[in-house]
Design a protein that fits this description.
The protein contains two helices and eight strands; from the N terminus they run βαββββαβββ. With about 130 residues, the protein is α/β, with parallel strands linked by helices. The protein folds into two domains: about 60 residues, 2,3-Dihydroxybiphenyl 1,2-Dioxygenase, domain 1; about 50 residues, 2,3-Dihydroxybiphenyl 1,2-Dioxygenase, domain 1 (Roll), CATH 3.10.180.10. The strands form two sheets. It has a four-stranded mixed beta sheet, with helices on one face. Strands 5-8-7-6 form a four-stranded mixed beta sheet, with helices on one face.
């Protein structure tokens, strides 16, 4: 088995595509509009996504929906990066929201940070060098 994608419902598809491509450095792999079913999908990923063994994020825009209740069950997406502090600065410079600055995880040494996408989904950044598994 292989992890293929995580689906997030978004209120403004272009705003979300811009965030994931510009602030997070992903690429837009494909976009499909289904007007009869009233939704549009966009898939973003690193390194070409599934075809290269990488997981993707499916951004789903349902026509007419501008926001969602995130609920209490959703946690976050985690992304491995070379330098958490530098990544936070890049995201901030692109207009992204850093909600927890780079620093060690509570009770450990792994460097992490948290950012939010435009729909308030949490994304954890984990520094890969020195990471505790």
């Amino acid at each position: 088995m292989q992890m293929l994608h995580t689906m997030l419902r978004v209120g403004d598809l272009q705003r979300s595509i811009d965030f994931y491509t510009n602030a997070m450095g992903m690429e837009l792999l494909r976009q499909t509009d289904r007007p009869e079913q009233k939704y549009t999908l966009a898939f973003v990923a690193y390194k070409g996504g599934n075809k290269n063994g990488e997981a993707e994020i499916e951004l789903t825009y349902n026509y007419g929906e501008t926001s969602y209740d995130l609920g209490t069950a959703y946690g976050h997406i985690a992304l491995g990066v070379d330098d958490v502090a530098a990544t936070c600065e890049k995201i901030r410079a692109a207009g992204g929201n850093v909600t927890r600055e780079a620093g060690p995880v509570k009770g450990g040494n792994t460097i992490i940070a948290f950012v939010e996408d435009p729909d308030k989904y949490k994304i954890e950044l984990i520094q890969m060098a020195g990471r505790e598994i």
